[in-house]
Amino acid sequence: PHLQWEVLDSLLAQYGTVENVEQVNTDTETAVVNVTYATKEEAKEAIEKLTGHQFDDYSFSVSYIMD
């Protein structure tokens, strides 16, 4: 089972105003999602809090994509 979008949205919203969430198609079982926060500070907090985060059976790997 995949992580539901509503659950992911509420998790991401804990760290700031989410302006955009876009799933990137990959050829693997790993889901890749690009998230845009309103500020760099919010993005930084999300990266710090979610890197290595375990949620149900899911593990998060988070990184920053330069503008």
TrEMBL record:
<dbReference type="Pfam" id="PF00076">
    <property type="entry name" value="RRM_1"/>
</dbReference>
<dbReference type="InterPro" id="IPR000504">
    <property type="entry name" value="RRM_dom"/>
</dbReference>
<dbReference type="GO" id="GO:0003723">
    <property type="term" value="F:RNA binding"/>
</dbReference>
<dbReference type="InterPro" id="IPR035979">
    <property type="entry name" value="RBD_domain_sf"/>
</dbReference>
<protein>
    <submittedName>
        <fullName>Insulin-like growth factor 2 mRNA binding protein 2a</fullName>
    </submittedName>
</protein>
<feature type="domain" description="RRM">
    <location>
        <begin position="3"/>
        <end position="57"/>
    </location>
</feature>
<dbReference type="InterPro" id="IPR012677">
    <property type="entry name" value="Nucleotide-bd_a/b_plait_sf"/>
</dbReference>
